[in-house]
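Researcher: Please generate the 3D structure of the following complex. Treat every line as part of one assembly.
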Amino acid sequence: MPLLDIRNLSIEFDSPHGRIKAVDRVNLSINPGEIRGLVGESGSGKSLVAKAIMGILNDRWYVSADRLRYNGVDLLSLSAKERRKLMGREIAMVFQEPSSSLDPNDTVGHQLHESLPMDECDVSFFKRRKWREERIKAFLHKVGIRDHKRVMKSYPHELSEGICQKVMIAMTIAYKPRLLIADEPTTVIEAGAQDQIFKLFKKLNQLNEVSILLITHDLEHVESWTKTITVMYCGQTVESGYTKQIFKQPYHPYTMALLQSMPHFNAQLSRKSQLTALSGSVPSLQHLPIGCRLGPRCPRAQKLCVEIPKMEKVRGHYFSCHFPLTEQEGKKS
Amino acid sequence: MWFYIVRRFNLFVLTVAVLYFLVFLMINAMPGELATNISGHVNPSVEQHEQLVQQYQLDKNWFNQYISFINQRIHGDFGLSFTTAQPIFDEMLKVLPATIELCFYALLVALCLGLPMGILGAVRYRKFSDHTVLGISLIGYSIPVFWLAMLAIMYFGLKLQWLPVAGRLNLLYQVDAITGFTFIDILLSDIENKRLALRDAFSHLLMPALTLALLPTTVVARIMRTAMLEELNANYIKASQARGLSPATIIFRHALPNAIQPVLAQVSLQLSTILTSAMVIEVIFSWPGIGNWLMDAIYQRDYPVISAGILVCAGFIILVSVLSDIFLIATTPQRRSAVYGSS
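Model: Done. Output below.
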């Protein structure tokens, strides 16, 4: 049974032009111990999906789904209090801009205090302080922060983004979550610290069996760190399956375009030639095309594409396209 | 941070110097003789006049005059009042505490009512309670203070006869002014039935303080609501929600401390508005404060008192705004390293 099972998740909001589906029937499932990448351009609704799972979208958004289950529990039917209990303990989330995810007015040490599971504390009242400090120290060491004393005393603005992200991760692992949602965890982080964070995720995944949903638009990271991926375009899932398979042979024209946009330096690129990219730009939310949302930009689009294609499955590889790329075409890349 | 405080202090000194200069110009522009206007001695004898010229260096150029003017004033010599021929400084010591008392309680009420209203509005954004808060604050903001004060006198004072309409304390209670603050004076004095006196002082204070508090309350509520809304949409709130913290912890431990700092800084800027409406309120409720005193001085063309009143009120406001700046720096970690007061 998958740990997280999402079927036909739609996220809508009211605009002056009527109700707009920012996320349109997205499917996603994560098995225990899996690292899944969620890939797409910015504005494709990746973060919305993550926030919908956590239930931290504000009232303007309407979330509906045929199924939104975590470990067999329907998340949408939980009360706010039950959901809070589940979050933080079972599901944790790491955000895009770590330094703004920490309270600017509070020391890092105190914020770590707050996210410790106090029901695990079995020492007397007077030893609690010591116990907490020990735990925090252990967690900080675990995420690779050596000078815990300085970090605990600092305010978030005094630390680098990389260290802030490590602190965020330390906070999330305090409760030993089973699912970690990482929403573009390395976009604002220095290059050197990026790999450290990914290694940390990998370690968590292997040692603690944490499933990870890695949301990113960086295909190189996806290729090297994830086992399975789901590709989103404009709020629709276009393709999902094993990372290796998809990178080897994409079925959906969008995935194909995405892979081609990665510059390969070994390939025979003539001097000053243009990199391949899809023509046109991502449609704005007010002017979403009907049917397959890639339609207007798709090189293979035909009349039939005004209807939303059904998800098809070929050897554990899902895609939604009326005219998928055949194996020969896929190999050309 | 120390560097910042020094800078702020410099700013304070400079602003006060400019203020003194303006008042000095004003005194020069007043009709009548300069020596009389600046010192308050009406019809001085020849020796006295000679002494005043010495004291204020009136025979020297304007810069020397300005310097000696500042020198006299910061040593507490504000001259004499035309009408009472008493030292203005002593008179001011009598009336200033009454105004400070009134403003203090009004500000207290404004904070105690305004902050929770603002928080409520932000937390229940675009719900019924939010609209109620906005509605009340709009009404409160639009009502002229003097009109409300008169209505209150008419209804609670004259029709229902619940509250006294004028003064600080009933004349039955013989309380000596030690500090000038009624409640403290009553507690310090040795009169019988202190409890009754306190109650009387409270009933005198109630109407002026509440009418005065109306405007700042609405302003505080609105500023607080906006600041709180901004904080509640911040990333770290989303992150703490995702960590499963309870809404109460999120609002009171994280959002509130962040939102309240700019609000308190804004409130200190409201002090000038409060002081202005306090003067109106004092006249209407015959509160023996600085506003009442200044109004009388204006009617009687009591130039030394007018200039002294301006110096003290404006100086007080400048002082408070500088102090609130320093307070903001001391409580906000990101700004503690700031050198300039810009951000």
